[in-house]
Amino acid sequence: MSIKSSKIRYLRKNSNYQCGVKQPMLGRRVRYIGTIIVALTCVAHVAFAREELTPLTRASTVTDPLEVMAAECRVPLDNLTALEVCANRKIFKSEAKTYARILRLVSIGRICQRLSEDDAQAILNASRSELEDARSTLPDQDQEWAKTWREAVVVGATQAADVRDAIREQGCDLFAKPGGDLTKIMTWSGKPQIVDGILLSPRTKP
Question: What separation, in Å, do the N-terminal and C-terminal C-alpha atoms of the chain show?
Answer without folding.
Answer: 43
